[in-house]
Amino acid sequence: MRNPFYYGGIVSEKYFCNRENEIKELKKDILNGLNILIYAPRRFGKSSLVIHTLEKLKKEKKLKYIFVDLMGISSKEEFINEYFNAVAQSLEEPLDKVINFFKNVIKFRPVIRVTVDEYGRTKFHLEFSPEKTLETLEEVLDLPLFYAKKGRNICIVFDEFQEIEVLGIENRLRSKLQHHSNRISYIFMGSKKSILQKIFQDKKRAFYRSVKHFQIKEISEKDWIKFIQDRFKKTGKDIDKSFIKEIVTITRGFPYYTQQFAYELWENTEKEVDEQVFKETLKLIMEREEDLFATEWDNLTSNQKKVLKLIVEKNGQNLYDEHILAKYEIKVGSLRKIIQILMEKDIIDRRENRYYLQDPLFEYWLKQKIY
Ligand SMILES: Nc1ncnc2c1ncn2[C@@H]1O[C@H](COP(=O)(O)OP(=O)(O)OP(=O)(O)O)[C@@H](O)[C@H]1O
Ligand SMILES: [Mg+2]
User: Fold this and answer.
1) Is the pLDDT at 155 greater than 90, yes or no?
2) Does the 300-370 domain belong in CATH 1.10.10.10?
3) GO MF annotations for this entry (predicted)?
4) What's the burial of 145, exposed, middle or buried (CB within 10 Å: 0-12/13-18/19+)?
5) Pick the CATH number of 19-213 from 3.40.50.300, 3.30.450.40, 3.40.50.2300, 3.40.50.360
6) Residues lining ligand 1, judged by CB closer than 6 Å?
7) Most buried by CB count within 10 Å: which residue of 4, 119, 260, 369?
8) What mean pLDDT do residues 337-348 have?
9) Closest atom of ligand 1 to CA, residue 43
């Protein structure tokens, strides 16, 4: 019997838990041609949510989409080629048709190279001389307009959008995209909240207030209970609700960790989850993460460590309490400064006046270490 849980890459239908409301809202926004910003911590299920939604829309024949993954992109040339390749893939036509199409629509008659990667997938490259870079960028960015002309809705996703910060194309990108019709909806996503906030909230920058900020939250305990129990049952095993509640208390419903926990628990369970199997699984997961957390911890300054401990001890609230400042021997000014640094490093975040560690397992690990 195959494990009914999965963690790692993007999950589709088979391993996808709920998010019904988000899907509904996202569908509406995309079809209305809005531009959308989605940021959430790493491994939070951003890519899965967006692709899942777009696949649904595609099946309903409501749109085409182009997914551009900017992870690791470090130059304008790489950006152009990643983008060009994504457009070419989205055409879903035979090779010669795709090439002919591009030869007709790109003004400077480019050289198009096609290679096959190790997984047997076709990859498209554009060859152009360095002095033609900006011109090529603009032409390539306009390619989706051909879909729009055909009266089709289209959605273009830039995953890991924060990577464009260093490419020096922000202004050009913005001025190009804003002239695209409302048939084209852009989704900008990423995990570096601090960088993305600057790009979209700084008045001096091109993308200032050009998007709807789409919030995604953790998946709720109720949804996880149904998801996990169903899958145990379907594979001839049992799990009591109370264990799922315990999982979600530790993982806060964070998608990656919750799936990981369920996966390992299922593996370790013969027939029914019991206290011992649960404890062993938790131990196994924590042992596996230990090295990573210890390294992350070692990379912090002693003051930053103090502040993290303080946040854990005070459950993120009333941090400026006199007694606690005295106990940790820290001054108000430096506490404020360190909190800001930890926010910029995406280690902590704040919700409704409560600070918390972004990574729920890192927080759990730290709690075990302190108490
Ligand atoms: N809706 C969901 N239901 C169940 N599990 C999910 C869901 N979304 C994400 N996951 C779990 O989280 C893992 C990571 O998902 P995904 O790659 O979509 O996250 P991400 O936020 O794009 O991550 P990254 O920051 O690494 O790009 C998946 O492999 C899966 O185990
Ligand atoms: Mg992703």
Assistant:
1) yes
2) yes
3) ATP binding
4) middle
5) 3.40.50.300
6) 6-11, 15-17, 19, 40, 42-48, 191, 255-256, 259
7) 260
8) 95
9) 23
